[in-house]
Design a protein that fits this description.
alpha/beta, 2 domains, seven-stranded mixed sheet, three-stranded antiparallel sheet, elongated
């Protein structure tokens, strides 16, 4: 038999309890870190589909100009972890209170005296370390961090063997003007299965599906399809870089904060550089802070783009001075501004490259604007359908303008959805292709547009080619002109092999593109 003895200490005890208190403080910090890590990774695992490289980019990018709704959603979804933290700190407070005022000993005839306070401290200290370790293992399982590190430490000769510098080849001819519309997270999975998507009963993008059928759209099948988002192109800035330069975003981690740097990819020659040299006016329109992720720096330095963003819209009174929703302002305002800016560009009489980026379909779940209908139970479905409708209205306006016949309109997604809404049943990321369509192309494809395997990298030379330019060798960056009929790197190497090479360390990339 045993008995519990509780004896009150004199004058609050002595200082010998402080080493244990310090240990509890340190391990409670471990418990907090574990809880935060587990909550964040758990939410991302349930809600998003991102790789560790994308996560690293997001974590090292300044939050200025970003939408913080996802942070609130993560906190809201972390009820279990918050409960564990509260229970842990209740137990911690109890132990700290008791150890300063009482001696609690369990006396046993067989096992002797047992200090309950000391045992409780050890249990709480062990719990902190174990919980953090469990959170780290969960993170590794979810994001395969060690695999990322292994590949980043492995050298690659991808660029030495395959990169084509635009300055080293002839890009001949005269091209049409370009209207390039990046549709946020626009992938072909939103279409119904009969059209080539994955939705069993309904096509959320009927307009885009019809456009692809009636114009030029390259596909990995004989139905609606698109390009694969290779590593380094699966978030917006990575996609913008890749589609305009032919290389993925693979700068060192510390350069992810491109908005803080005075130079962005100074060694690259991009679409904007080529068109500026040929006398084009370049403009970039977005509905958010263009400084986010270095977009302003990139487009200003590569083609001297005129930048029209959230603050421009406020200054020109398209929206009120303090207006801010979602990432800045809705696409319904963006398309109105696009009409006005295109009219000005066309009136100048000079060839132009007008590039715009939508935002309403951004993760998480998308933004339900005043134009969105309520036809579907899933809000994201209504947002995607609304984006399809708004684009078709804008294209209808374009077709009535004098500049229409002399302009190529390129419609492309930037990357697949980064959350799981509408695509939760698609297990293989490779099967989720990014939408593309070329309207009023200056040339016809030399080969078939169907059953082609290609990536974001191929869009750079393909866009230039669609405008009417002839590219010596049909290759720029790591991309191939899809109009040429030549095989892409994805077709010659295989997607998995190409993907792995882009994840490796490249001395050539760092020395020549940074």
């Amino acid at each position: 038999m045993g008995r519990l003895n509780i004896v009150r200490k004199q004058s609050g005890g002595n200082g010998r309890t402080w080493p244990g208190t310090l240990g509890l403080a340190l391990t409670s910090l471990l418990f907090i870190l574990g809880a935060v890590l587990y909550a964040a990774v758990g939410w991302m695992d349930r809600t998003l589909r991102i790789q560790f490289g994308e996560l690293l980019y997001t974590l090292t990018t300044p939050l200025k100009g970003s939408n913080l709704d996802m942070v609130a959603q993560c906190i809201h979804a972390s009820g279990t972890q918050i409960t564990l933290l509260l229970l842990y700190f209740f137990a911690l407070a109890t132990v700290l209170f008791l150890q300063r005022r009482y001696t609690v000993v369990y006396r046993s005839d067989k096992r002797g005296d047992m200090d309950i306070i000391k045992l409780s401290r050890r249990v709480l200290m062990a719990a902190g370390g174990i919980f953090l370790l469990a959170a780290l293992l969960f993170t590794e399982h979810t994001f395969k961090v060690t695999e990322y590190i292994r590949l980043r430490m492995s050298p690659s000769l991808l660029y030495e063997e395959n990169y084509v510098d635009p300055l080293a080849v002839d890009i001949k001819g005269e091209g049409k003007s370009l209207i390039c519309i990046y549709l946020e997270s626009m992938e072909t999975a939103y279409a119904d299965t009969a059209s080539g998507g994955v939705q069993p009963d309904v096509n959320y993008i009927p307009g885009l599906t019809r456009l692809a059928d009636e114009n030029i759209s390259f596909s990995g099948s004989d139905k609606l399809g698109g390009f694969h988002a290779i590593n380094g192109t699966t978030w917006t800035m990575g996609a913008l870089l890749a589609t305009t330069s032919g290389v993925p975003y693979s700068f060192p981690t510390e350069r992810n904060s491109m908005g803080k740097w005075e130079e962005f990819a100074g060694g690259l020659t991009t679409l904007g550089d080529v068109l500026k040299e040929k006398g084009y006016q370049n403009e970039f329109l977005c509905g958010s802070n263009s400084g986010f992720a270095g977009r302003r720096t990139y487009f200003k330095q590569h083609g001297d783009y005129k930048i029209f963003d959230l603050y421009t819209a406020q200054n020109l009174e398209y929206i009120p001075r303090n207006y801010f929703v979602w990432w800045g302002y809705e696409d319904l305002h963006l398309y109105k501004i696009a009409r006005d800016e295109l009219t000005k560009l066309a009136e100048s009489g000079e060839p132009f490259n007008f590039t715009m980026l939508t935002a309403d379909t951004h993760y998480v779940s998308g933004y339900v604007c005043s134009l969105c209908r309520s036809d579907y139970d899933v809000p994201t479905a209504n947002v995607v359908a609304c984006a399809d409708s708004q684009l078709m209205d804008f294209l209808g306006w374009c077709m009535e303008q004098d500049f229409y016949n002399d302009s190529v309109i390129v419609i492309t997604g930037d990357h697949p959805r980064m959350d799981k809404f509408l695509v939760e049943d698609v297990e293989d990321y490779y099967d989720r292709t990014v939408y593309n369509c070329f309207i009023n192309s200056a040339k016809e494809p030399s080969g078939s547009t169907a059953n082609r395997d290609f990536t974001t990298l191929d869009m750079f030379p393909t866009i230039l080619s669609s405008m009417g330019f002839e590219i010596e060798g049909s290759r720029l960056g790591l991309g191939v002109d899809m109009f040429s009929g030549e095989p892409s790197l994805c077709e010659t190497m295989g997607f998995e092999a190409l993907e792995e090479e882009t994840k490796k360390y490249s001395k050539y990339y760092i020395e020549n593109f940074s």
